[in-house]
Write a structure and sequence with these properties.
The chain has 496 residues and is an alpha/beta fold. The protein is built from 15 helices and 24 strands. It has helices at 3-12, 60-77, 82-111, 115-132, 169-182, 197-206, 224-230, 243-255, 278-290, 310-324, 343-358, 391-394, 410-417, 433-441, 475-480; strands at 28-30, 33-35, 40-44, 51-56, 140-144, 148-156, 159-163, 186-190, 215-217, 236-240, 259-263, 268-272, 300-306, 326-327, 335-337, 362-365, 369-370, 377-378, 381-384, 401-407, 425-429, 447-450, 469-470, 483-491. The strands form 7 sheets. A 7-stranded mixed beta sheet has the order 16-19-20-13-12-21-22, with helices on both faces. Strands 9-8-7-10-11-23 form a 6-stranded mixed beta sheet, with helices on both faces. Strands 5-6-24 form a 3-stranded antiparallel beta sheet, with no helix packed on it. α3 packs antiparallel against α5, α3 packs antiparallel against α6 (197-206) and α7 packs parallel to α8 (243-255). Residues 1-22 have low confidence and may be disordered.
Amino acid sequence: MSIDKILQLTASVQLDNLQDGSHLEASNIINGQFVPTAKTRHSIDPATEEPLPPAPLATKQDLDAAVKHAHEAFKTWSQTTFDHRAQLMLQYADAIEANRADLEKLNTMESGKPLLVSKTEFDFTIRWLRTFATMQLKDEVIEDDDERTVYGTYRPLGVCGAIVPWNWPVLLGLGKIGPALMTGNAVIMKPSPYTPYTDLKLCELSMAIFPPGVFQALSGDDALGPWMTEHPDINLITFTGSVRTGKLVAASCAKTLKRCILELGGNDALIVCEDVDIAKCLPKIATMTFINSGQICMLAKRIYVHEAIYDEFRAALVEFTKEHVKTGGGFEPGVLVGPIQNKMQFDLVKDMYRDVKDSGYQLALDGRILDSGKGYFAEPTIVDNPPDDSRIVVEEPFGPIVPLLKWSSDDEVVDRANSLNHGLGASVWCRDLVRAERLARRLSAGSVWVNSHFDVAPNVPFGGTKESGIGREWGLEGFKQFTDHVSLWVWKKIFD
Ligand code: NAD
């Protein structure tokens, strides 16, 4: 595919005037065609509570058709070379890059996230796709002598269903599509009903690049996810979402013994030791607490600060947050905390703010809920040393509210950090790197950082322990999960 052809396609995508959504047409894509649905639905602009343009409402027949076409496409796609798939993946990344300004606006419009965060999501996504294009699962030679060679090879599974959440729909959507396609699978993406538009447009951009049926997208309502997990001809579900839904997905996949990768909720502990330079670590800690209004799985959700510096740290965090963490609409400049993405989540966040107040916990920063009927806004709130069994400590709030907790010994803080069923990310901030690493190695989480939080990369596996998930995404470890390991035994001399 020449770049001219791609640009021709992008001209027809019509992403103009996105800020008011008036020119947006979103369609399901089956076998390389736009397939309209008889009924449509729409989601809500979280910054205004106004309805967004119509989005498709897929039926079970649409899903059956997509699965059939995916199997057909898989026959040829799975036989293509790695180099061919890599070349198309790079073209796809280029096409997204050429359209990114409009797509970033669309992402902000539907998700509410600040435009700057949307840009970061696209920076990551484009980098992820380009890196995926360099990552090959190569055969291993397990044994090789005169008599026989035994290879370990990786065979694609067939048709994958990618179920995407609303909080990070671009990176987490294409973070599934890239590995599925690079390993030779066909894939059907299902965006969240709360954020269908950008994901559908991203599939639309792929139409001129990948063969029909290789990458399809279906948007629908709450029925579509369970249809996918139950479908007898889908071979793997890669799911990102809440722990509660993850358990339903696992139970449903078990009925057909379908593989599933589960990337679920987190309640990350961030541990601050007494030897840190507070001013140096504060900007990153505050950002990794409140960015995207706290609606990221791997943000700092419990901040444990050593008692020797607790008061000083609390004052500095409050000061920094007041000064630098601005709440507002995603298109307003300088905003870090946009609206909560949807009413269901806003109600949960409001309930958490209410619980904190009703329980009489001290508030170091008392953020308001701005419930005016014109957007789902909540200001950053910092809870001062609530009990370990309080809801704000044990539940993932998924909003801009965080508890600060006081600790005194290494053993104690490790036990408290590890005490929950979550295990997605965790971090230790400490000048003494030997102590820091010793603490880090004791934390039960899929990603653990020293003097950082929420680092991710396309070549580094990512996922959770305990109830935060099963399996890994990204990195070659993540690629393997889209394949079956096949042991290939070749006897060489039997007919000599
Ligand atoms: P959710 O579980 O409500 O929905 C996720 C997706 O699953 C959506 O596309 C939804 O339509 C679909 N779905 C809903 N019910 C289903 C069912 N019964 N069967 C199949 N699919 C179904 O999650 P959400 O509210 O969109 O996302 C927020 C949650 O996701 C948070 O808990 C967050 O921590 C978690 N999350 C985890 C990661 C990670 O990588 N570990 C990343 C981002 C978000």
